[in-house]
């Protein structure tokens, strides 16, 4: 088991480094010049060119890309991801500042989605092809089909503007920032993000539980006279949740994509906003930093899924 | 009354931020704390340095926390702020003298002197600080040496006494006043020990620019959420009325909605939101003309784009009033030259919509109707996208095959470097205060990338008039020369002028004293005269 985990970690580190190289090169292969873009053409004046040249030199953009990569890599292994071209603040600082809000938003959303998906999936599976099942299917399809930014705007309209129950944007009220205040700001974005991933999760829970319910051991349990509730809860459900671990882990990076959009809508001070701005400004170090963060998240989630699988399902052989 | 709940900050809360009160804060214990919430159209880059490349949202903040010798009012006229009056220019045009107001202090209580001004202007003229504007000072004695790195300070910036700041020039340059008088002054006593090449990354500018001469003092930037500012008790005009300001970056949809709930007090809106906002109770609208304008440059490096009649025909072929009505709800003015205000003569050709005249001009020059011209622009702004499609249809109507090409910002930069575009649609600039700014987009010596001349137009007579005007101290004579230059530009059409959009502000009627400014980075230009009566 330990050997399995160690090997998986080593493989992931290699993959991570390769992703780093890929992102670094791709970002620099994009057209344009981040320094020149700092000054709109209509504002160019005598002296702008001197600024552009000196800034390019200062940022090391005049060196060959591989030299730039080497320099960046040596810094990166010590934890220094460089500085933003625009604000000149260290990238790691920019990311860490925004990590908390993003993690808070995503973990709350994940909890909400599981709280919705598991009970709803069970009910839909047990009562399949009844009104409850169809309603659950309709709801799942609905939240999958409607883009979350749209749901976000509608929610702001209803709960903030019409009813006045919840604040419409941000993570805290200026001058406040207590737990209750943050919670009030968190409800809408987390609920919408959670709802969006609850849709597919419900379908998975339902499908996998139905598979288990028709398995031989369930029939045996029923034949032995176990109560129907006990059959579902003790036998079928436990087995059906195993694939769910993988689905949830794979879902987390997808959720991040949803969070990037919702952070814009709700002015949530997370990483999404930072990433979107960095891309539009060609702020190379920030883009690379963010991409590596996403890559790390995906790799860690996959790794955890693998390990959890091995732990939970005795049929998975680890050598 | 949701709005009251949302907008009212807790008056019992301690003000932990007595940064530089010096006892002048007064006791606000009894009265209500007044807080203004304003929209910021984008989170700041959080580099609040006057030397840093211009970034709109950061500019809004800097306009509140710093002050300058001169300001620009909504009519785009210079007026004195830290100076007692507009500067004196010696008869030979070689000495510019500013007199500063006496007895002023920084927000931390330190005295403000002409040395602070000399310090700041030196930073602006030194490329090592990350300044983008060093070229503006090329006519100042000693500035080229600093730009070249052979001297540390500009000998032409001096402070003969505590309240006098002088600029010595090697040749007359009147436009320098309009182009540099509004530089924001930073505190020497805070920054003197920072090495010049670390000026762009120093904590004061990137995290807490909490000492300034502006009406408000920087308190805190809660990342991507808000910038908190409190009034400066030692502001030159006395302490402002409104106690606190929060600048909050949210999407324009949310901002407009929050205007209705009272969470937001001041928002810059687009013409598309006008109808929604006009239907709200207690919300006022104010507009001002912008300082720049939207145009398309025509690349004259391309042989088929060199004939002036082609460019004139393009102007005649486009119904710009229709474009303004359709894309901007009428909130813009058609443009016929880069010059504005007093530099704009009233006898210019207005190129009113006349497709027949366009066809005549094209016939006269034997325009090849099969020649395809490509218009490249960065999509995503409603008015510009509409402008592009109207250009396409109306130019095609008179026999100019225009093809639209949407590009990414980086792609456009590359096309500019390679001079490979035919036409490009963009906007910006500031030509309303200082007419000499037009030199930067139209002169033979300012072809991109040395300047912003993206049409690669070159007219020696125009350049001559501009340079002569900038060296002429007498105001009437100077503006006469600018008007002559404007007539040449208007006849030669170096670019297809489109429109000058208004800046539209929506604000709660509780704000008294708000005067709409067309410069969208400076809504707070007279904030010390505002009060908030909820």
UniProtKB/TrEMBL annotation, chain A:
GO terms for biological process: transmembrane transport. GO terms for cellular component: plasma membrane. Residues 99-305 form the ABC transmembrane type-1 domain. Keywords: Cell membrane, Membrane, Transmembrane, Transmembrane helix, Transport. PROSITE patterns: ABC_TM1. The chain crosses the membrane at residues 9-30, 103-126, 138-162, 182-201, 241-266, 286-312. It is found in: Cell membrane. InterPro entries: BPD_transp_1_N (IPR045621), MetI-like (IPR000515), MetI-like_sf (IPR035906). It is a multi-pass membrane protein. Belongs to the binding-protein-dependent transport system permease family. PANTHER family: ABC TRANSPORTER PERMEASE PROTEIN (PTHR43163:SF9), DIPEPTIDE TRANSPORT SYSTEM PERMEASE PROTEIN DPPB-RELATED (PTHR43163). This is ABC transporter permease. It comes from Jiangella rhizosphaerae. The lineage of its organism: Bacteria, Bacillati, Actinomycetota, Actinomycetes, Jiangellales.
TrEMBL record, chain B:
GO terms for cellular component: ATP-binding cassette (ABC) transporter complex; periplasmic space. Residues 20-29 have a biased composition (Gly residues). InterPro entries: Peptide/Ni-bd, SBP_5, SBP_5_dom. GO terms for biological process: peptide transport. Keywords: Signal, Transport. Residues 77-440 form the Solute-binding protein family domain. Residues 7-37 are annotated as: Disordered. One of its GO terms (molecular function) is peptide transmembrane transporter activity. PANTHER family: OLIGOPEPTIDE-BINDING PROTEIN APPA, PERIPLASMIC BINDING COMPONENT OF ABC TRANSPORTER. Belongs to the bacterial solute-binding protein 5 family. This is ABC transporter substrate-binding protein. It comes from Jiangella rhizosphaerae. The lineage of its organism: Bacteria, Bacillati, Actinomycetota, Actinomycetes, Jiangellales.
């Amino acid at each position: 088991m330990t050997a399995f985990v160690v090997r998986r970690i080593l493989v992931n580190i290699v993959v991570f480094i390769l992703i780093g190289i890929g992102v670094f090169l791709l970002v620099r292969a994009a057209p344009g010049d981040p320094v020149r873009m700092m000054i709109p053409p209509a504002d160019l004046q005598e002296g702008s060119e001197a600024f552009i040249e000196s800034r390019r030199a200062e940022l090391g953009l005049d060196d060959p890309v591989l030299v730039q990569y080497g320099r960046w890599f040596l810094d990166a292994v010590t934890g220094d991801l460089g500085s933003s071209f625009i604000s000149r603040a260290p990238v790691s600082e920019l990311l860490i500042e925004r990590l908390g809000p993003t993690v808070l938003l995503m973990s709350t959303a994940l909890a909400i989605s599981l709280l919705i998906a598991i009970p709803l999936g069970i009910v839909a599976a047990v009562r399949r092809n009844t009104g409850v099942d169809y309603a659950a299917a309709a709801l799942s399809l609905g939240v999958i089909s409607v883009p979350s930014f749209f749901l976000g705007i509608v929610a702001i309209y209803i709960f903030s503007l019409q009813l006045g129950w919840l604040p419409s944007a941000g993570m805290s009220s200026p001058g406040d920032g207590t737990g209750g205040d943050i919670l009030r700001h968190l409800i809408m974005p987390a609920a919408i993000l959670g709802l969006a991933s609850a849709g597919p999760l419900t379908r998975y829970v339902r499908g996998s539980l139905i598979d288990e319910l028709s398995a031989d051991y369930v029939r045996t349990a029923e034949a032995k006279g176990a109560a129907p509730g006990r059959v579902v809860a003790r036998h079928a459900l436990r087995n059906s949740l195993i694939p769910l671990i993988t689905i949830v882990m794979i879902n987390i990076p997808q959720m991040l994509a949803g969070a990037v959009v919702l952070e814009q809508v709700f002015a949530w001070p997370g990483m999404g906003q930072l990433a979107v701005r960095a891309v539009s400004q060609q702020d190379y170090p920030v883009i690379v930093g963010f991409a590596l963060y996403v890559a790390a998240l995906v790799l860690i989630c996959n790794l955890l899924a693998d390990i959890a699988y091995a732990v939970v399902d005795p049929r998975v052989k680890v050598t | 009354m949701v709005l009251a709940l949302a907008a009212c900050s807790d008056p019992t809360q301690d003000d932990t931020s007595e940064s530089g009160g010096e006892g002048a804060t007064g006791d606000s214990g009894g009265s209500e704390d007044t807080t203004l919430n304003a929209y910021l159209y984008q989170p700041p880059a959080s580099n609040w340095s006057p030397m840093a490349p211009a970034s709109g949202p950061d500019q809004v903040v800097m306009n509140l926390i710093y002050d300058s010798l001169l300001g620009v009012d909504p009519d785009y006229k210079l007026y004195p702020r830290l100076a007692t009056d507009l500067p004196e220019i010696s008869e030979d045009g070689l000495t510019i003298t500013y007199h500063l107001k006496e007895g002023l202090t920084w927000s931390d209580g330190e005295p403000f002197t002409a040395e602070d001004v000399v310090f700041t202007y030196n930073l602006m003229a030194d490329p090592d600080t990350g300044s983008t504007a060093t070229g503006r000072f090329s006519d100042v004695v000693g500035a080229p040496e600093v730009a070249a790195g052979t001297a540390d300070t500009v000998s032409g910036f001096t402070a003969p006494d505590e309240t006098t700041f002088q600029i010595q020039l090697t040749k007359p340059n009147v436009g320098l006043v309009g182009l540099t008088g509004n530089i924001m002054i930073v505190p020497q006593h805070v920054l003197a020990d920072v090495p010049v090449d670390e000026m762009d990354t120093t904590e004061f500018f990137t995290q807490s620019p909490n000492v300034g001469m502006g009406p408000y003092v920087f308190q805190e930037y809660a990342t991507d959420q808000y910038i908190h500012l409190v009034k400066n008790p030692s502001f030159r005009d006395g302490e402002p009325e409104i106690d606190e300001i929060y600048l909050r970056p949210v999407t324009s949809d949310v901002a407009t909605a929050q205007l209705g709930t009272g969470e937001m007090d001041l928002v810059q809106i687009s013409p598309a939101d006008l109808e929604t906002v006009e239907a709200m109770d207690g919300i006022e609208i104010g507009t001002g003309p912008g300082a720049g304008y939207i145009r398309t440059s025509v690349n004259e490096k391309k042989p088929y784009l060199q004939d002036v009649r082609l460019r004139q025909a393009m102007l005649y072929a486009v119904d710009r009033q229709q474009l303004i009505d359709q894309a901007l709800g009428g909130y813009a003015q058609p443009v016929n030259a880069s010059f504005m205000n007093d530099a704009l003569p009233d006898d210019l050709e207005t190129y009113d919509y006349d497709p027949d005249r366009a066809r005549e001009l094209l016939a006269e020059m034997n325009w090849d109707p099969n020649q395809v011209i490509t218009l490249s622009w960065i999509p995503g702004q409603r008015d510009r996208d509409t402008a592009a499609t109207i250009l396409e249809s109306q130019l095609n109507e008179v026999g100019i095959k225009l093809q639209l090409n949407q590009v990414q910002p980086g792609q456009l930069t590359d096309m500019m470097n390679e001079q490979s575009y035919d036409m490009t649609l963009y906007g910006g600039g500031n030509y309303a205060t200082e007419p000499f700014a037009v030199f930067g987009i139209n002169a033979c010596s300012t072809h991109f990338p040395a300047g912003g001349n993206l049409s690669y137009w070159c007219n020696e007579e125009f350049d001559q008039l501009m340079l002569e005007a900038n060296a002429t101290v007498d105001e009437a004579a100077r503006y006469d020369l600018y008007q002559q230059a404007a007539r040449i530009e208007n006849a030669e059409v170096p670019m297809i002028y489109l429109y000058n959009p208004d800046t539209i502000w929506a604000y709660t009627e509780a704000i008294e004293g708000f005067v709409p400014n067309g410069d969208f980075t400076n809504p707070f230009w007279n904030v010390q005269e505002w009060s908030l009566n909820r």
